[in-house]
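hey can u check if this looks right to u? its 281 residues, i copy pasted from the old doc so theres a chance i mangled smth
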Amino acid sequence: MKIISIRETLINCFLKAGIERPNYTADIIISNVLSISRAKLITKMQDELSEQNIKNIFLMSEERLQKRPLSYILGESEFYGRIFKVGEGCFIPRPETELLIEALLSLAPNAELFADWCTGSACIGITLLLENPKYKGYGIDSSDAALKWAQKNANLYSLNERITFICEQSPSKCTIKENSLDFIISNPPYIPTSKIEGLMKDVRDYEPREALDGGEEGIDVLLKIVNNAPRLLKPAGYIALETDGDEQIEKIIECISADFKIIKKIYDYNNIMRHLVCQLK
């Protein structure tokens, strides 16, 4: 069977199953099995596939048809132009979070120490370290499973001397030295509990619940972080948060207005007010 034929077959199957981005998904699976780039795949469409490659392509495609996330199938996800290892127990990086990183890189170019709260794969913390060699950081998460992926990514980019991982559920119990952080950045669980069942099957049934469920209003973890931030931040330190949108941001602002001033509200690619950046008064 030629690549072009199996590609057409996969695209049709993905379309019928309602899989997002069917062309992209087919190309990524075929490229992964053949260990070539998507760009090179275009030049190989008339090539014949071996029986083993055909088998592997269909096995991976069947997993995707069952709505298992493509990143889990591949064992990796792209974020900020880099590859990060991901799998079960680890939240998959989202492109809108890149906007939060850009804001911090711009606001705090001379910072020395930060905390990436709810670090997951550590894609946020590791990206910050790779983009600014002055930084050192903590990656904090309540999940041992997630931190195993975070450690794999720190190993991948040889950053073990610049990032320290802490397994802790409560910010109030975290052992980070008081008034030591230049900024805190976090993409915490922020989906209201009542909305979890309405999420796409890919997310709801596969990604870790603790990385999604933010409590009744979706702000339980967000508030724990912002309430403890003044104790951990240096004077005039920043806190940067990803949220579910306008309503959550307004509630957070109400809770932190005594300690913080609002620096920036950032809209995501769908024009949703997604991120909030504040500075300690």
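Residues 67 and 159 are 33 Å apart (CA to CA).
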